[in-house]
Design goal:
Strand content: under 5%
Largest sheet: 5 strands, mixed
Structural class: mainly alpha
Number of helices: 33
Helix content: 55-70%
Length: about 750
């Protein structure tokens, strides 16, 4: 320390740091009542000028004494000089809310910059000690993939984008009006331009990535120009051709998700190799459910991209031990949190993998492994992921700049974390205490005892998964003999009372398994046999597959503990995971087939897979969200709580009727009103509806349960003149129009004469 200040540069920088700290003291005491005796002036301009002058002097000193441009060294010196200022400002910001937001932003970005410098130092240290190899350059990677693979990926993106664009504007999505007419998207951008940072919280999701990506459409169309005009009651009249706005704001999301398919392939190739990555990406890109979600403005439309990519990049890190994949893990996790807080389940997943990775290590390696060092490095990597994720969450979310507590909403204070965070914190605290006080004796003893029977552990995980999958299939094909999955999903947040833990847990598999192509479902069944057969080998493919299966089980366990049965939209992030598992099985099957029939080329097999899987897009187009596997009996469907499927088609029929502008309808979906040119009602205000001269009633299977509850509630409360809309769902007379979505009688929308 004494030699450090022998250099003139260090003496000057230390003096500047002291002056900056002193200036900060006199700046913040103005806002802290017990320290008012230190106030020398209330004129803030003086302090700002001193900050500017000292900042320029700091930059000049560093540049003057630098022998060469070393950015990390320069930034480190600046951080050290401004450390007293940042530390004192943190204290001042806690004590008073009156400081200009620029100081809150300074503190936030100071912490982020300091963290990135420390990560950079860690990276350099690891690269030197472990001789970490850099990832392949872009040119090398492209050469390795072969032309046929790149052509198939290009074709896949074209197919995805082509089917996705078809009639993308002719759809009325539930809750989408909150993002368009509710001004969530425009609010984000307007508040940024007006520097109203605290108002950039546009949703409780928080949905910031939705506002950013979909917001590109604001360049072309403004939602306020299309907002329907409300006249009497809930009557809606379209103000303009709303399809223009729909396309402008939906297409950016679709384009983004389509272009992310090659990114899926890149990380999957780094994890599983070219063949498994290609087949998995094909299944993801041809999934009707995923494409259907990507066609609407909703956090779920991009959550399925970021959350799985975070997992895949982390598994790629575990395989290749290259820190670049660890950083991408944090980046994707941060973007997932910006999209929807439910992504914080990944914190638990990554934490669990610290121990599962150790358990699956072979015995000889464990004997030579320094457990304390392993735990320290694992927790350090976990801290890096968390830091990067929160930094990515913080930067494009200005509301967090002025209210850093919002970072807790992405982690411990999230509603999705509500019931599990005490257990998580308790477990983490126990491990840290054991590490520091008992040198990991307890933790290591427990893990070693389990590791000796690790094959049983993997068999238990596989057995639970395969048994749940088989039960869900058998129960469905057996006409819901044990649990009525559609009934449970009809009331996803209250069915726990009747279905219980087991019923809700098993119900979760129903929309996942029957929401994928039959080819993928068969592959999932085959995968369990492949994994059982290779349970002793512990290859990277086996371990990664086991981790992905564990995540599905962990996700369902979390939702079941929270008493929620997950409709397919609630578990959208699991669809890429299950399709990756199916891709592994199919690629394995193709390799076996090639050995038996050498003339069969893998590229041909991949092309055939693309054609077969894309057929599900063609058959379900343009109502992709109404898709269900061909293996699901026609009396059932999985789109239990639909997102508005069929609303446009019903409105289009009504618009063809004579004098449609003077027709009055009641609909259980607001989306019908968006496209209908006449008078449309969707409320249960019976006193207002009684004299409106309703001509038609529009009902849909997805709203049957809700309508019945509303009618029964009105009867119980003693309301008069109740119109029995709930009886229209089973009417067989007076039907003017019927649309059976995906050709399933149970999934319908009907127009019935009143």
């Amino acid at each position: 320390m004494s030699t450090m200040f022998q250099r003139t540069e260090h003496k000057i920088l230390a003096t500047l740091a002291g002056l900056l700290g002193l200036n900060t003291v006199f700046f913040i005491v103005r806002e802290i009542e017990p320290l008012n005796f230190l106030v020398i002036t209330q004129d803030t301009h003086i302090f700002y000028l001193i900050y500017a002058a000292l900042g320029i002097m700091t930059a000049g000193t560093i540049a003057f004494y630098a022998e060469s441009v070393r950015w990390r060294e320069w930034i480190t010196k600046k951080l050290l000089v401004f450390f007293p200022t940042a530390f004192l400002l943190i204290f001042g910001l806690f004590e008073s809310k009156h400081f200009h937001y620029i100081f809150q932003i300074f503190v936030g970005f100071y912490i982020i910059t300091a963290g990135l410098v420390l990560i950079s130092l860690y990276h350099t240290t690891i690269a030197k000690t472990r001789k970490e190899t850099a990832p392949l350059g872009a040119r090398q990677w492209f050469r390795k993939q072969k032309t046929a693979t790149l052509v198939l990926l290009t074709l896949l993106v074209a197919v995805n984008l082509g089917f996705g664009t078809y009639r993308i504007a002719q759809f009325a999505a539930v809750d989408e009006a909150l993002w368009t007419f509710g001004k969530r998207i425009s609010k984000y951008w307007n508040n940024i331009s007006e520097r109203e940072w605290s108002k950039t919280t546009v949703s409780d999701k928080p949905g910031v990535t939705v506002a950013i990506i979909s917001g590109a459409g604001l360049i072309f169309e403004d939602p306020k120009d299309f907002k329907p005009v409300k006249s009497t009651g809930t009557t809606l009249h379209p103000k303009d051709d709303i399809t223009k706005m729909n396309f402008a704001l939906r297409f950016p999301i679709l384009l983004f998700t389509s272009l992310m398919l090659p990114v899926f392939y890149f990380f999957l190739e780094r994890l599983f190799g070219r063949r498994k990555a290609l087949i998995s990406t094909i299944l993801i890109g041809t999934s009707p459910i995923l494409l259907g979600m990507a066609r609407i403005i909703n956090p779920d439309s991009i959550l399925w991209v970021f959350a799985p990519l975070s997992m895949i990049s982390y598994l790629a890190f575990l395989k290749r031990r290259n820190l670049h994949y660890l950083y991408w893990t944090g980046i994707f996790l941060g973007l997932a949190l910006l999209t929807k807080y439910v992504a914080n389940i990944l914190f638990i997943f990554f934490f669990a993998l610290i121990f599962l990775e150790y358990l699956l290590t072979d015995k000889e390696t464990r004997k030579t492994l320094d457990f304390s060092d392993y735990m320290k490095q694992s927790f350090l990597r976990y801290a890096i992921i968390t830091f990067i994720a929160l930094a990515v969450f913080y930067i494009p979310y200005p509301a967090a700049w002025v209210k850093p507590s919002k970072l807790l909403n992405a982690t411990l204070l999230s509603q999705a974390f509500e019931s599990t965070w005490p257990l998580f914190i308790g477990c983490l605290s126990f491990i840290l205490i054991d590490q520091w006080a008992l040198k990991n004796r307890v933790t290591k003893g427990i893990l070693d005892a389990i590791a000796d029977k690790k094959q049983w552990l993997s068999v238990v995980i596989l057995s639970l998964f395969s048994a749940s999958v088989l039960f869900a299939i058998v129960n469905t094909l057996g006409h819901m003999q044990w649990y009525n999955f559609p009934e449970i999903l009809a009331s996803p947040k209250s069915s726990y009372l009747t279905a219980g833990f087991t019923g809700v847990f098993l119900t979760n598999f129903y929309p996942l398994l029957f929401g994928i192509h039959p080819l993928a479902l068969i592959a999932i069944i085959a995968l369990t046999f492949f994994l059982y057969k290779n349970s002793k080998q512990l290859t990277h493919t086996y371990q990664s597959s086991l981790y992905l299966i564990l995540f599905i089980l962990l996700y369902y366990l979390g939702t079941t503990i929270n008493h929620v049965a997950t409709i397919f939209r609630y578990q959208i992030m699991l669809f890429p995971i299950i399709l990756i598992l199916a891709g592994i099985a199919l690629a394995t099957f193709f390799r076996i087939a090639e050995k038996q029939y050498p003339r069969i080329s893998f590229n041909v097999s991949a092309l055939i897979t693309l054609i077969i899987a894309a057929s599900s897009l063609w058959l379900s187009s343009p109502l992709h969200l109404g898709y269900a596997s061909g293996l699901l009996p026609h009396r059932y469907h999985i789109d239990i709580k639909d997102m508005g499927t069929g609303s446009y088609e019903a409105a289009a029929f009504l618009n063809t009727l004579p004098d449609a502008k003077n027709i009055t309808i009641w609909s259980d979906k607001n989306g019908v009103c968006t496209f209908f040119v006449g008078n449309c009602y969707s409320s249960f205000n019976f006193s207002n509806l009684k004299n409106k001269g309703i001509d038609y009633v529009v009902v849909s299977s997805g709203r049957q349960s809700r309508t019945a509850k509303m009618i029964q509630g009105s009867i119980s409360s003693g309301k008069q003149n109740i119109i029995p809309f709930d009886t229209y769902y089973t009417k067989t007379e007076g039907i003017a129009y019927t649309l059976e979505i995906d050709h399933r009688p149970s999934n319908f929308i009907k127009v019935i004469s009143f």
